[in-house]
Amino acid sequence: MNIKRIEKPVLQQLLDESALLTGEGVVEYEKYIKDYANAYMHADVAKDMNVLAYKVQSFSGNGDQALNWGVTNMEPVTVNGEYNITRGHFHLDRNQPEFYLCAAGEGYLIKWDGQDEVILERMTRGSLHWIEGKYAHRMVNTGKTTLRSLACWPKSAGHDYKAIEDQGFPVRLFDDNGEVKVVPVHD
Ligand SMILES: [Fe+2]
Question: Which residues pair with 56 in a beta bridge?
């Protein structure tokens, strides 16, 4: 018998407003508005915005059957009135789902099946979101503070960002004098 007792967490998610993820193997990246300017309606404005949009921390487990864990921190910025959005993606494997858990802030999770079905789920501290594998998903920070969301998804799901870069999402969210206005995209 080999009993291993671990007193200090190997990985730790702070359960405060920071939702900071720490531990060996945690990786981070940042996206600035200019990095994905074409996702915004006013891409011409976005391309000059050297402004932090979001930061992601994640941990990837070992093996093909592993789960990933991550936290996305979205800043409360707008591009000509359009709220800060994540790039958004389908999973490369459309059968692989994901959970989101909002830790702080407020916004929306947009789920899109690639056809006519669009679901906007309000995100507030503690809201838990189940994302079936068929849905592309994108978060929108409609609040005045950082929107933080924890996520858990199969490592084998992969990310298909290109499909969204090519097609965009069918709705955009704008600040309309403090109200969230949902605008369908017509092409
Ligand atoms: Fe995902």
Answer: 29, 72
pTM: predicted TM-score of the whole model, two decimal places: 0.95
Q: Write out pLDDT tens, residues 53-63.
A: 999 999 998 88
d(CA 109, CA 140): 6
CATH number of the domain encompassing residue 156: 2.60.120.10
CA of 154 to the centre of ligand 1 (A): 9
The pLDDT value recorded for residue 187 is 63
Region 21-34: mean pLDDT is 97
Please give all residues whose CB falls under 5 A of ion ligand 1, grouped by chain where several chains appear. 98
CA distance 131 to 117: 13
Question: Residue 158: inside a domain, yes or no?
Answer: yes
Domain assignment present for residue 178? The answer is: no
Q: How many structural domains compose the chain?
A: 1
Within 10 Å of residue 142's Cβ, how many Cβ atoms?
22
Which residue range is the domain that position 102 belongs to? 14-169
Distance 25 CA to ligand 1 centre (A): 20
User: Does 4 fall in a domain?
Assistant: no
Q: From ligand 1's centre to the CA of 109, what distance in Å? A: 11
* 181, part of any domain: no
Alpha helices for 6-135 (secondary structure H): 43-46
